[in-house]
Amino acid sequence: MQAFTTHTGIVAPLDRPNVDTDAIIPKQYLKSIKRSGFGPNAFDDWRYLDEGAPDIDNATRRINPDFVLNQPPYDKSTILLARENFGCGSSREHAVWALTDFGFRAVIAPSFADIFFNNSFKNGLLPIALDASVVDKLFALVEHNSGIEFTVDLQAQTVTAGDESYAFAIDDFKKHCLLNGLDDIGLTLQHAEAIKAYEQNRQQTAPWLFPGK
Amino acid sequence: MAKTLYDKLWDEHVVRTEDDGTALLYIDRHLVHEVTSPQAFEGLRMAGRNPWRGSSILAVPDHNVPTTDRSAGIADPVSRIQVETLDKNCEEFGLTEFDMSDVRQGIVHVIGPEQGATLPGMTVVCGDSHTSTHGAFGALAFGIGTSEVEHVLATQCLLQKKSKNMLVSVDGAVNPGITAKDIVLAIIGEIGTAGGTGYAIEFGGDAIRALSMEGRMTVCNMAIEAGARAGMVAVDATTIEYVKNRPYAPQGEILDRAIEHWQTLHSDAEASFDKVVHLDAASIKPQVTWGTSPEMVIAVDADVPDPAQESDAVKADGMRKALAYMGLEAGTPINQVAVDKVFIGSCTNSRIEDLRAAAEVAKGRKVNNSVKLAMVVPGSGLVKQQAEQEGLDKVFIDAGFEWREPGCSMCLAMNADRLEAGERCASTSNRNFEGRQGQGGRTHLVSPAMAAAAAVSGHFVDVNELMSDQ
Ligand code: SF4
Description:
The complex is a heterodimer. Chain A is an alpha/beta fold. Helices cover about 30% and strands about 15% of the residues of chain A. Chain A has helices at about 20-25, 45, 95-100, 115-120, 130-145, 170-180, 185-190, 190-205; strands at about 5-15, 80, 105-110, 125-130, 150-155, 160, 165. The mean pLDDT of chain A is about 95. Chain B is built from 16 helices and 19 strands. Chain B is globular. In chain B, strands 5-4-3-6-7 form a 5-stranded parallel β-sheet, with helices on one face. In chain B, helix 6 runs parallel beside helix 8 and helix 12 crosses helix 14 (about 390-400). Chain B is α/β, with parallel strands linked by helices. At the A-B interface, helix 4, helix 6, helix 7 and helix 8 of A face helix 2, helix 3, helix 5, helix 10 and helix 11 of B.
């Protein structure tokens, strides 16, 4: 996994609440058996005027000029600013893969859906929850300073935007893994003995959970 | 100390805990489908790892399978590759799979319980957000992403932070004709799509206890639409009756021991919740969503709401966008809104009881001429078989519905079943997001009986009025 320490980049405003994972990556792209290549289809229904399909060359499609990520400088943005309940809906990690493949390293919103939030950390995408009133301010700042860059410092747990700095909260364990780009599975397997011991105990106390063994 | 049901399920499954409270949670049952697993198996293979406990896994293709004749296989090559990839992965790692030709094939959240693969007290995960369905059994069940699927495959565990406890109590009895779907839509209308974020919801109260297992599954299925990763209902006699004698359920002396334990799976009387919400069951009317989020829901006798009346500017803007997308005017009585298509199916409402409820409405009536397509998609091959034994297929076909093979179908339109741009659908599924059932498609979520009523009327209508007009 790509580690995250600090990042500075252009902030794109996506001014909608409840942006769902169907919107982030529509279902036709879930048929892929790969993890990469979803970026050109991030927000597909909003980004293009015609309907997309996995086997269509996106360069030949009709672009929606009104959609923020099609407008320079936001086509080069790496931080997404959004409203509450970002990433709600399905568990598809393809939504995170689409955002990272587009180039996003962080998403700032007042709140995130739980599964999306967890999926982000597995892929080096940092979801940052800030107060709704702060997010309001950030939207105003971006509106008046198109192309403005924010700096996210994970170690210090701050977002610096213009003259202000805002602190955000994060679990220590998630922070540690993300700062060091650690692979969860490898970490968990260090506790293989504990898992085996738990399992053996449960086979005695709750044998119905181990059918066919 | 008094514990909630969630506390009990959590505590029983903790292998170890990090300093910041992140727990390593043991997973008893891992359900797998074709869409969210290929990259996980690929990751496992690349790291040279094997599934930790293959017998915990039950795999089934459901999202991409055709609901028409299957003898010719899957026409779309991309869908076909995904389903074949699941077959190959299961074969390579020696995992149980109900493949497309198996009569037990169906939607993953229908077949787990149907097979007794979902048991009370289990932790159940699947790379699918509607895994919350299985919480109906007094299990801790939630959806996970693909990296987590790989993590569970490799370690049988998941890294989790404990959620907060929420109780949603639906007090009293519902009126005749009010279903589990109406109850859960009313709950989401009340608490909102983010109302349960960060919580595990226990559904309780007389109206929930009175529900069948099918009804409880419908309610828990949509916990995720209220923002909660997990929803659950305490174990009672209804739960145990349902589980007994299913193929994967324990038997004999082990069953007796299991039942003894299952009977403890309820919140203690003194347990405290971080948040409690009460709903009056008697006030719930048949529900219809009008917008592009499940919280945008009203009673069938109400009017489409007006953003001008909403004081929160962000919300009002969301409502305006939803009205524009849905092609609706504020103030329109929802029961005057005409539908183009009707979909009865999905992991929310495709079980035998759902089909019976829809058939009761369809019986002796005809799908309205203005409706282009009305389809019924059973949740599994076994549900389909049972329905056919009861003659429900004939009822539907005589009324002009299409009777299909099991799968996810038009719930998310990954196979050939879908809405065209601008088409309006009465759907028994769980999500009315933009484009969910096809780009530009407009989804209204309703119960199976309400969907059948819309099919025969050509527009939304209170099913109780329709039935009393005989
Ligand atoms: S029926 Fe719909 S919601 Fe349920 S698993 Fe299938 S696609 Fe997901």
